[in-house]
Amino acid sequence: MWKQIRLLTSIQTCNIYGRNESRYSRDHLKRSSNEASFLAQVMNFVFIGIASALIAAAFSFSGIVESIPVLAYFLASVVIMVFTIMQAGDTLYQLGTFELMLTMPVRQEAVITSRFLYMYVTNFIWGAVIMVPAMIVCAFTLKPGVIFYMDCIIGIIVMPFIPMVIGSLVGALVKSKTARMRHGKVISAIMTILFVIPAMILWMAFNRMVGQGSNGSIRQVAQLIDIWSGRLYPFAQWFGRAVSDGNPLYLLPAIAVSIGLFYVMAQILKRNYLKICMAVNSKTASKNYKLGTLDQSSVLKSLVAREWRHYVSSSVYISGTLMLYVLTMVLALALLFLGPKTVEEFTGIYAVDGAFPFLVGFFMSATPLTIATFSMEGRQWWVLQSLPVRNRDIINSKLIISLMVSAPFYAATMVIGCLAIRPGLIGGIAWIILTAAYILFNTVLALKLNMKYPKLDWEDENKAMRNNTSTMVIMLLSLLTILFPAVITMIFKAYADVIMLALAVILLSAAAVLHGSVIKKSLMCIR
Amino acid sequence: MVLSIRNLTKSYEGSRPAVADLNLNVEAGDIYGFIGSNGAGKTTTIKCVVGIHDFDAGEIEINGISVREDPLKCKADIAYIPDNPDLFGYLTGIQYLNFICDIYGISKEERENRIAEEAEAFEITRALGDLISSYSHGMRQRLAIISALIHEPRLIIMDEPFVGLDPEASLLLKNKMRQVCDAGGAIFFSTHVLDVAEKLCNKVAIIKDGRLIADGSMEELTKGETLENRFMEVVGHVETD
Questions:
Q1: Which of A294, A358, A432, A517 has its CA 20 to 30 A from that of B174?
Q2: Do residue B128 and residue A291 have CB atoms under 8 angstroms apart?
């Protein structure tokens, strides 16, 4: 049994972050795409680690260093729980490879444990990225003894278990309920957005309070964390006590509950694993179709309809692209109802009314649908490649659907934003044209980038959407193309409208040139 | 000549040629079997013909038109069925077929008749309203076959078409293949099942390590022996009793 667990776990973990594929792939394009994804992931970790260290440093300077371990433990646990809920269907309850395993002399418990351990490894990395920098800052301030480090190591190792067990069970429940719903993917995406947007707003508020740097505001945050973690998740407080009092006995409840919960989950899964896997991966099939009349459409219209169905069939694709659109609308609504001053105070964005078109430009163009449009085709890409369809039509259908999805959010955001800030007729026109130009330019640019770095060979669509080189590149490029003109506009306020219109003309021309080049490119290079 | 492959060479980056200097002709009325061991280069050749892969050298013509010069015209005349048809799982069967009809410009009346006829023949009419992701492998294969037949192509290219098909559907496909050929079309398919190839094909080509090592009519190639024995002989695995 242990040998089987070790074997199955090592088979899965050897390709963590695509390392095995990078190592052995002879395809130069695939290898460089994998390497770029890996680099993007490492950068992600570095940014999160720095953010964690900075927040811990702010706490340390305010003299409430004892709150750092509680906060780090609590945040890492929440992140791991959310990731587990999202991952559970594709990792823990993946049916395809489980059926393959069933044909071999492998114990079911070994398969379940190895999958859980694989999830543990990925979650442990996330936990460590959040907790280790914070604990280093803590150690610098407290200059503790050996027991502190021992408590930290035990705490970081134990921490992922409880949120993983809870996340696995909640994930199974959510996935099995939505799997058979007709619009399950859309519902799942809306649920994700509804969960993430308030979390992002709270996170922004939290950062703002910490960023203000006053002892009072940070103390308020620390108090809130103490109260909420005490109510919701006492393990974080116990970890804090273990670390600050140098008493490892406080870690015992977390260890005991982890073992207990894992045992309970193992018992549930042992008896119901196949049933859960089938429920999570089930599809509705009524088998009562009666042929009726069919509509005929043009090739482009038919391709656009297919793109739309493809888009709404993936909750990962929807939530990954709509998140920033919704956030932009929330920003516009906040400007309308709370006013620019309050929004500035809350978000910490300087001169939010003047920066509005650039903010909208960035948020609405940083994650266009085209960012993963080829990657999301996956192994079905051969269908389009073998059909008598012009490259131009395939590319245009992808651009059209991306613009169609962003259009209502763009229109609503601009109307609300203009009503809130009232930039005047010329100013309003300049804003509308500039933001539209940003969206158009980045939609085409993202498509070109995804043509260059496609990721077609995937089992889990998260890999196509999130571990995507084009996503990282477009985010960085958007930031650069927006930051520089935004600063110039702020400096030369009197000519802001002219600068914005000139910039829009440049972006639209660049988009046209880029479009001309992508439609001429052979789609055979995408593999 | 429905399909003409001349001196086809295709390499994948950093490896030896998957297909080297391959020549092959498929004429109207042919059921042409393409056989070889795993990794011999069958799928690579097929993917070059259907326009999924580009190739390094040589020429491929479909009905006298180069696939490099006018790929759309060539693709309009052919149909391709891969070994493991990953179809758009997010579409229902009928949406997929309707989409394929739109691509090939099939009129409303024609598509309704053809879909009804083929779906009935392959017994998947009642499942057409379900998502393809809910289909079994065999059902997907049936849908892929229907989508290939729907625009009445002159050349059907299939990669291991009988894998996953039940005996009924398999027999139906064989009959369809003969019908296409009788109507002046041609079939080019790869297979491991030598018995099927022997019974069905009038021409066969054997590929080994990317090179064509034998081709011709079934009679010429087998010379009174079974195809299995002849295959083992030419690929260098002669069985001794």
A1: A294
A2: yes
